[in-house]
Amino acid sequence: MRGGFIPDLSEAHRSRIRITLTLLNEALIKCEEWAQGREVRSILYREENTLHHETRAALLTYIGCIRRIVTELRDDLHLEARAQDIAKTIRGHCSILWVDVLEMTGKYLRGFGEPQPELVHYLDPKAHQILRYLHPIKRLLSTPAL
Question: What is the pTM of this model?
Answer without folding.
Answer: 0.76
